[in-house]
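Entry 12.
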Amino acid sequence: MLKSLKLSLLVLLISAPALADGLAVPADVISVYDGDTFKANAHPWPGMTMNVSIRVNGVDTPEIRGKCQAEKDTAIAARDYVREVLGESVILKNVKRGKYAGRVVADVYLEDGRNLTELLIAAGLGRAYDGGKRSGWCD
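Predicted 3D structure (C-alpha coordinates):
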Protein backbone atom coordinates (compact mmCIF):
# COMPACT_ATOMS: atom_id res chain seq x y z
CA MET A 1 0.00 0.00 0.00
CA LEU A 2 2.74 2.47 0.98
CA LYS A 3 4.77 1.60 -2.14
CA SER A 4 1.68 2.21 -4.29
CA LEU A 5 1.09 5.56 -2.59
CA LYS A 6 4.71 6.62 -3.16
CA LEU A 7 4.46 5.67 -6.84
CA SER A 8 1.20 7.60 -7.20
CA LEU A 9 2.75 10.69 -5.62
CA LEU A 10 5.80 10.45 -7.91
CA VAL A 11 3.55 10.23 -10.96
CA LEU A 12 1.61 13.25 -9.71
CA LEU A 13 4.84 15.19 -9.10
CA ILE A 14 6.29 14.63 -12.56
CA SER A 15 3.07 14.83 -14.53
CA ALA A 16 1.41 17.89 -13.02
CA PRO A 17 3.39 20.91 -14.26
CA ALA A 18 1.47 23.42 -12.16
CA LEU A 19 2.35 21.53 -9.00
CA ALA A 20 5.93 20.78 -10.00
CA ASP A 21 6.64 24.37 -11.10
CA GLY A 22 6.03 25.75 -7.62
CA LEU A 23 7.76 23.01 -5.69
CA ALA A 24 11.36 23.17 -4.45
CA VAL A 25 12.47 19.57 -3.98
CA PRO A 26 15.57 18.90 -1.87
CA ALA A 27 17.68 16.00 -3.14
CA ASP A 28 20.80 14.15 -2.04
CA VAL A 29 23.24 13.48 -4.87
CA ILE A 30 24.11 9.80 -5.34
CA SER A 31 26.18 9.78 -8.53
CA VAL A 32 26.99 11.86 -11.60
CA TYR A 33 26.89 10.18 -15.00
CA ASP A 34 27.84 13.13 -17.19
CA GLY A 35 27.59 16.92 -17.24
CA ASP A 36 23.81 17.01 -17.53
CA THR A 37 22.65 13.77 -15.90
CA PHE A 38 22.90 12.53 -12.32
CA LYS A 39 21.09 10.31 -9.82
CA ALA A 40 19.70 11.53 -6.53
CA ASN A 41 17.39 10.67 -3.68
CA ALA A 42 14.71 13.35 -3.90
CA HIS A 43 12.54 14.30 -0.91
CA PRO A 44 9.33 15.82 -2.35
CA TRP A 45 7.39 15.54 0.92
CA PRO A 46 8.45 15.00 4.55
CA GLY A 47 9.34 11.37 5.18
CA MET A 48 9.34 10.48 1.50
CA THR A 49 12.44 9.59 -0.54
CA MET A 50 12.48 8.78 -4.25
CA ASN A 51 15.51 7.59 -6.18
CA VAL A 52 15.49 9.38 -9.54
CA SER A 53 17.68 10.07 -12.54
CA ILE A 54 17.76 13.80 -13.24
CA ARG A 55 18.44 15.54 -16.56
CA VAL A 56 19.58 19.12 -15.93
CA ASN A 57 17.15 21.49 -17.64
CA GLY A 58 18.34 24.08 -20.15
CA VAL A 59 21.81 22.72 -20.94
CA ASP A 60 23.40 20.15 -23.22
CA THR A 61 26.83 18.78 -22.40
CA PRO A 62 29.01 16.48 -24.50
CA GLU A 63 28.40 12.73 -24.33
CA ILE A 64 30.76 10.34 -22.55
CA ARG A 65 30.29 7.97 -25.50
CA GLY A 66 30.82 10.80 -27.99
CA LYS A 67 31.60 10.63 -31.69
CA CYS A 68 35.12 12.01 -31.45
CA GLN A 69 37.88 12.16 -28.86
CA ALA A 70 37.41 15.91 -28.31
CA GLU A 71 33.76 15.34 -27.36
CA LYS A 72 34.68 12.48 -25.01
CA ASP A 73 37.42 14.57 -23.36
CA THR A 74 35.08 17.53 -22.85
CA ALA A 75 32.37 15.19 -21.54
CA ILE A 76 34.75 13.88 -18.89
CA ALA A 77 35.72 17.44 -17.96
CA ALA A 78 32.02 18.40 -17.66
CA ARG A 79 31.26 15.32 -15.56
CA ASP A 80 34.20 16.00 -13.24
CA TYR A 81 33.20 19.67 -12.93
CA VAL A 82 29.65 18.71 -11.97
CA ARG A 83 30.92 16.17 -9.43
CA GLU A 84 33.00 18.94 -7.88
CA VAL A 85 30.35 21.69 -7.72
CA LEU A 86 27.24 19.67 -6.87
CA GLY A 87 28.26 18.72 -3.38
CA GLU A 88 26.04 16.36 -1.43
CA SER A 89 22.68 18.12 -1.78
CA VAL A 90 20.80 20.17 -4.37
CA ILE A 91 17.41 21.77 -4.84
CA LEU A 92 15.28 20.74 -7.83
CA LYS A 93 12.74 23.15 -9.27
CA ASN A 94 10.35 22.98 -12.21
CA VAL A 95 10.46 19.18 -12.16
CA LYS A 96 8.91 17.60 -15.26
CA ARG A 97 8.77 14.17 -16.80
CA GLY A 98 11.71 13.52 -19.15
CA LYS A 99 11.67 11.97 -22.62
CA TYR A 100 13.13 8.74 -21.29
CA ALA A 101 11.44 6.41 -18.82
CA GLY A 102 12.39 6.91 -15.21
CA ARG A 103 14.11 10.25 -15.72
CA VAL A 104 12.93 13.72 -14.80
CA VAL A 105 14.08 17.09 -16.10
CA ALA A 106 14.63 19.82 -13.52
CA ASP A 107 16.30 23.14 -12.86
CA VAL A 108 19.14 22.29 -10.47
CA TYR A 109 20.34 24.68 -7.79
CA LEU A 110 23.37 24.17 -5.58
CA GLU A 111 23.14 24.62 -1.82
CA ASP A 112 24.46 28.20 -2.22
CA GLY A 113 21.71 29.05 -4.73
CA ARG A 114 23.76 28.95 -7.93
CA ASN A 115 22.10 27.44 -10.99
CA LEU A 116 23.96 24.41 -12.44
CA THR A 117 22.90 25.20 -16.02
CA GLU A 118 24.37 28.70 -15.81
CA LEU A 119 27.60 27.37 -14.27
CA LEU A 120 28.11 24.77 -17.00
CA ILE A 121 27.53 27.30 -19.78
CA ALA A 122 29.79 29.91 -18.15
CA ALA A 123 32.55 27.28 -17.76
CA GLY A 124 32.34 26.44 -21.48
CA LEU A 125 31.29 22.86 -20.68
CA GLY A 126 27.72 23.09 -21.95
CA ARG A 127 25.41 24.89 -24.35
CA ALA A 128 21.95 26.30 -23.87
CA TYR A 129 19.39 23.63 -24.81
CA ASP A 130 15.63 23.83 -25.20
CA GLY A 131 14.89 20.15 -25.78
CA GLY A 132 15.06 20.27 -29.58
CA LYS A 133 17.67 18.91 -31.97
CA ARG A 134 21.13 18.95 -30.40
CA SER A 135 24.19 20.30 -32.18
CA GLY A 136 27.23 18.06 -32.50
CA TRP A 137 30.37 18.50 -30.43
CA CYS A 138 32.85 17.33 -33.10
CA ASP A 139 34.30 19.53 -35.86
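Annotation: The mean pLDDT is 86. Helices lie at 2-15, 17-21, 69-86, 116-122.
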